[in-house]
C-alpha cells in the first residue's frame, strides 16, 4: 500500500503540530488547487510521531473535511520517523512474480525489526544491470502498529485511507511537479516539521539517500519557552516573528539562530555520511519545506553553513487556482507547510 496511487484522493498530512489537507485536480497535464486547509493540533495529540490522543486528531480531520468542503472520502496520508526504514538493495535479476515471492526473505537481511511487525513494499528502480544479473530495488518497511494508528484515525473520521506513503517521497513528488529537474545538480529536499526533519537527496532526479532526524520546529519553541518563560502558544508566535508580551522578535533572534546552528550541524552529519558512502557528488542545492522552514533567518544560516543555493520550496509554484477561491497572500504564507499534502494529493493510479 505504501506506493499505491489512486485517482481523486485527498492529501492528508498528519503532522505533530498541524494537520494539513489538500485536494488537487489534473486537467490537460496541469494541476489545479481545489481545496486546502490547516488545523493546529494540541502538543499532546502526537508525541515523537506517535498518536497519543486519537480523538484530537479525528476531530481535526473532521473539521478540515467539513470546512474545506471536500467530497471524496478517499484519503492519502504518509509517515516519517524511526518507524520508517528505507533501503536501496541489490537483488538478482528476476521476474516481478519472483520478486514478490522473495522480497520478504530479502527484507529480513536489512530491516532491524521483526519482519512480522512491519508492512513491506518495494519498487524496482532500475533493471539496467540485468546484463550483470542484478537489479536495484527500493525497499520500504514501516512498523505495522504505526500504520494502523494513522489509518485508524482516518477510519474513525469516516474516511478511507487508500494510500499510506512516506513523507520523503511525498515531498519529492511535490518538488517534481513544481520544478525542472537539473541532472547536473545533487539536490537535498529537507522537510522540517515540528518533530521530525526528513532529508531526501536526489541525484540526476533519482533518490539516492534518505534520513529522518528527530529534530525540528519543537526545538525552537522549547528553547524560547525556557529562555523567556513563555507559554507554548506565545513561543510559537515568537518563533514565527510575531510580537508577544515580554519579548520581541529581535530579542529572540539569538536563540533562534543558536538552534538553527544545531539543526545545521545535524544536517551536516547526514551530508558527511552521504559523501562517505556514495559515489555521487556533494550536495549542490538545498530545498527547504515544512513549517520549520518559515523560521526567521533559518534559510540564511543553512546557506552560510553549506555554501550552496538554499531556497524554500513552493509546492504551489506551478499549481493553478482561482484568485476568487483562495487568498493568495495566505496561501503563499503557508505554502512550505503544504509540501507533503500536495505530494500526496498528486498521487494517481498506475503512475
Give the CATH class of the largest domain. Answer: Alpha Beta
Proportion in helices:
25-40%
The number of domains: 2
Which overall shape is indicated by the principal axes computed on the Cα atoms?
Answer: globular
Biggest beta sheet summary: 5 strands, mixed
- The average pLDDT score comes to 90
Q: Give Rg in angstroms.
A: 20 Å
- State the separation between the terminal residues, measured CA to CA: 14 Å
According to CATH, what is the topology of the largest domain? Nucleotidyltransferase, domain 5
- Please give the CATH architecture of the largest domain: 2-Layer Sandwich
> What is the number of helices?
10
Describe this structure in words.
It is a single chain. The chain has 351 residues and is of the alpha/beta class. A five-stranded mixed beta sheet has the order 3-2-1-6-10. A five-stranded mixed beta sheet has the order 13-12-11-14-15, with helices on both faces. Helix 4 crosses helix 10, helix 5 packs across helix 6 and helix 7 packs parallel to helix 8. The mean pLDDT is 90.
Amino acid at each position: 500500500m505504501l506506493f499505491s496511487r489512486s485517482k481523486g484522493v485527498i492529501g492528508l498530512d498528519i503532522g505533530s503540530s498541524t494537520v494539513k489537507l489538500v485536494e488537487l485536480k489534473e486537467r490537460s497535464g496541469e494541476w489545479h488547487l481545489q481545496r486546502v486547509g490547516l488545523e493546529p493540533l494540541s502538543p499532546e495529540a502526537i508525541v515523537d510521531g506517535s498518536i497519543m490522543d486519537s480523538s484530537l486528531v479525528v476531530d481535526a480531520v473532521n473539521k478540515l473535511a467539513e470546512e474545506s468542503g471536500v467530497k471524496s472520502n478517499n484519503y492519502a496520508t504518509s509517515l516519517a520517523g524511526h518507524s520508517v526504514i528505507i533501503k536501496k538493495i541489490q537483488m538478482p535479476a528476476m521476474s516481478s512474480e519472483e520478486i514478490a515471492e522473495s522480497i520478504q526473505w530479502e527484507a529480513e537481511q536489512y530491516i532491524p525489526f521483526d519482519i512480522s511487525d512491519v508492512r513491506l513494499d518495494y519498487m524496482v528502480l532500475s533493471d539496467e544491470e540485468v546484463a550483470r544479473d542484478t537489479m536495484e530495488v527500493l525497499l520500504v518497511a514501516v512498523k505495522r502498529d504505526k500504520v494502523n494508528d494513522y489509518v485508524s484515525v482516518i477510519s474513525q473520521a469516516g474516511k478511507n485511507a487508500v494510500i499510506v506513503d512516506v513523507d520523503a517521497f511525498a515531498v519529492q513528488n511535490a518538488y517534481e511537479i513544481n520544478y525542472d529537474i537539473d541532472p547536473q545538480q545533487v539536490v537535498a529536499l529537507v522537510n522540517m516539521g515540528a518533530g521530525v526533519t526528513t532529508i531526501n537527496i536526489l541525484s540526476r532526479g533519482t533518490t539516492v539517500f534518505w534520513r529522518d532526524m528527530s529534530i525540528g520546529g519543537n526545538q525552537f519553541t522549547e528553547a524560547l519557552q525556557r529562555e523567556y518563560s513563555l507559554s507554548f502558544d506565545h513561543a510559537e508566535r515568537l518563533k514565527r516573528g510575531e510580537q508577544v508580551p515580554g519579548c520581541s522578535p529581535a530579542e529572540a533572534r539569538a536563540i533562534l539562530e543558536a538552534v538553527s546552528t544545531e539543526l545545521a550541524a545535524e544536517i551536516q552529519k547526514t551530508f558527511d555520511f552521504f559523501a562517505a558512502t556514495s559515489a555521487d557528488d556533494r550536495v549542490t542545492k538545498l530545498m527547504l519545506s515544512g513549517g520549520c522552514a518559515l523560521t526567521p533567518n533559518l534559510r540564511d544560516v543553512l546557506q552560510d553553513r553549506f555554501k550552496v543555493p538554499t531556497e524554500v520550496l513552493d509546492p504551489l509554484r506551478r499549481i493553478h487556482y482561482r484568485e476568487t477561491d483562495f487568498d493568495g497572500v495566505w496561501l503563499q504564507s503557508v505554502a512550505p507547510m503544504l509540501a507533503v499534502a500536495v505530494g500526496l494529493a498528486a498521487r494517481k493510479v498506475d503512475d
